[in-house]
Structure formats: structure tokens, C-alpha cells
Amino acid sequence: QVHLAESGGGLVQAGGSLRLSCAASGRTFSSYAMGWFRQAPGKEREFVAHIDWSGENTYYADSVKGRFTTSRDNAKNTVYLQMDSLKPEDTAVYYCGARWLMSTSPPVIIGSYKYWGQGTQVTVSS
């Protein structure tokens, strides 16, 4: 069992930055690849970023590529999402998810994630 808890959301002006954290419980954090998703009001949850168990390989949605960076610290059981050059369209609830490191499904597939956090709100004003 893995429990995930996101933090770091808030209100920021367009062009600003935020860093989200996702803290995981348990001693098997390095057995999981991690993903970030977001859900805006009235829209479906969408993929944002993925990082493998080692932190060496990352993958991003086109909409955030070059602006967002995900990283992880396995010693701290934490994954991060650094968000720069934020836009109003980035406004959403952001979720982190954990999936088994051997998963062969594309990281954009929501169903491939076994555990989810409760989400943290990010609001970008224009």
C-alpha cells in the first residue's frame, strides 16, 4: 500500500512558478514510477508528466514541455513538479499517481496507476 499526498499548490500570476511535491508513505517508493495529472473544472483528468523509478527518464505532455520539470528523491520518498512560465490554462487540480515500475502501459494511461493522492489546486491568474 502506498499513500500519496500532494502539496505546494496555490494562486500565482501568469508567468510565475510553483513547485508541487508528492510525498509517499512506505518503504517501496523506488519500486514505483510516478506520474502527474491534472483536472480542470468540467474536463477529464489529463496527463502532465511521468518519471521512472530511477529518476533518469522523464516524459511530458506537449502542453507543458519546456515549462514543467519533474524529478524525484527516493531517499525522501518524494516526487516534484516544477512549474515555470505558468499560464491561465494550467489552472487545475494536480494529482500524483504511482504505478508499478514494470508497467508496460504508456504513462499517459490513467488506469495504469494504482495509487493516487488527493490533489492540490493550482490557480493561475491572467
Explain this structure.
There is one protein chain. With 126 residues, the protein is an all-beta fold. A hairpin with a 6-residue loop joins β5 (46-51) and β6 (58-60). It has strands at 4-7, 10-13, 18-24, 32-39, 46-51, 58-60, 68-73, 78-83, 92-100, 115-116, 120-125.
H/E topology pattern: EEEEEEEEEEE
* Rg (CA only): 13 Å
How much helical structure, as a percent, in the residues? Answer: under 10%
Report the oligomer: single chain
Outline type: globular
Low-pLDDT parts are none
Number of helices, where a helix is a run of at least 4 consecutive DSSP H or I residues: 0
CA-CA gap between termini? 40 Å
Structural class: mainly beta
Strand content: over 45%
Characterize the biggest β-sheet.
Answer: 7 strands, mixed
Task: List how many beta strands DSSP finds.
Answer: 11
The average pLDDT is: 96
Summarize the structure.
With 126 residues, this protein is mainly beta. The chain has no helices and 11 strands. Strands 2, 4, 5, 6, 9, 10 and 11 form a 7-stranded mixed β-sheet that branches. The chain has a 4-stranded antiparallel β-sheet with strand order 1-3-8-7, with no helix packed on it.
